[in-house]
Input
Amino acid sequence: MGAQFDISFVFSFLPKLLGTLSTTLLIVACSLLTGIIVGFLVALPRLYKVPVLKTLSEIYISFFRGTPILIQLFLFYYGLPEIMKLVHVDMTRTPVLVFVILTYGLHTGAYMSEMIRASVMAVDKGQVEAAYAAGMTGFQAFTRIVLPQALGIAVPVFSNLVIALLKDTSLAFTLGVMEMSGKAQTLGSLTQHFIETYIALALIYLVISFTIEKLLLVAEHHLLRHEKQNTPEKNLFKINKSWSYRRIIAELGTGKGGTGL
Amino acid sequence: MKLDPSFIWTALVQILSAIPTTLYITCVSVLIGFVIGVAVALIRLYRVPLLYPLAVGYVTFIRGTPMLTHLLLIYFGLPVLIDGLAAHFGWSFRSVSIPMIGFAYISFSITAGAYMSEVVRSGLLAVDRGQLEAAHSIGMTTPQSLKRIVFPQALAASLPNLSNSVIGMLHGSTLAFTVSVVDINAKAQIVASTNWKFFEAYLAAALIFWALTFLIERVTSVIERRINLYNRGGVA
Output
């Protein structure tokens, strides 16, 4: 199988793979944007218990969380043109990247809406009542009291979702998009040095997810600075405040199941 | 190409035959992953020297890279490793005798192990340290108190995460098609390309996955209610 293992290939493949990094990051950024917008739109009917819309958004979330992203990719790629044909819109010339971003956007949107809902609900209801008592309007109470706290709670989940999305983009090659994984496969079959290609690929993914995680950890510390305790104590089994928030979120089941593929 | 709703049913019936493969991959990876996860979590909690940095490195690497990469690394890397060792030590075993699905089992178990270790670790951390101390104070040994006091509570705390992980692995098993294992996704591809009806076939596959996920969620919620009985007040 293939040629002799040669570590120098890992280094020569790195710059070649980095050339397609922009495609991967483009997919991540666009889908993230779509996901946040969709997530807000879907979370609102559930938070305010709007009758029919609430059921619709529940079905939407259930479907996108209940089926693999790979199936969703194929479903959109083959299904959307057919459905658009019924309303006489021709999608045969639409670039594949649009389907990919749309699928990832809607997929992430389902998780985003759960994240938004859970973090808003994790803020103590008494806080809102106190804000009302102090004479704030509903909008003021939300933007000044609930949102700042909810943001801090949401960051760990958000960080997980971004990393999961980054790793999910490795499936875009199935539709023929030349992002990093697709490039790696091409490089592998051209040179027959598969192991070296995939090691290089793994290294790049590792560095990016590590960077994202560290960046968002800084953001989390900044947003949760009001939770900081005065006496820091080191204890193996200590459960601090931000940890208990993480647990709340875990119990609400917002986390992206196990693997980001 | 026109939409053919009746074909969804035809595809559904054909794809049903591939469900066991998907379930095998999911079950094997979750079970082996859980064992790896418990070991890694304990190593990390007790900071076992030498093993600790290895465990941290393993979890970081696996969680930082896509599952597809793990699968392909194992698929291309393992045969080289095994054949190299076999040639060196003169074994008769060759990598060709590993079935395709074996690669999926090995790679997905390794993936699941890293995610499971996080689930187990957060479950163990959720148990109050005082419980362990109380168990020690009445004369239990550490393995006894872990087994009798900590694990049952940790399991209850981590059940939602556990169910998420199982669903994640179920969805992750769709990647097995890259190493030519015929699971639900691959079967849908076959059905689709032989009949040239892609949308209908994938819709059928999506419905099956949706149903399986729903089933896992229901079962977990039943177990959760059962396992959390001790928490339902009454005494305190």
Observations:
- Residues 138-168 of chain A form the longest helix (31 residues).
- Confidence is low (pLDDT under 50) at residues 235-254 of chain A.
- Residues 160 and 256 of chain A are 8 Å apart (CA to CA).
- Chain A touches chain B through 54 residues (CB under 8 Å).
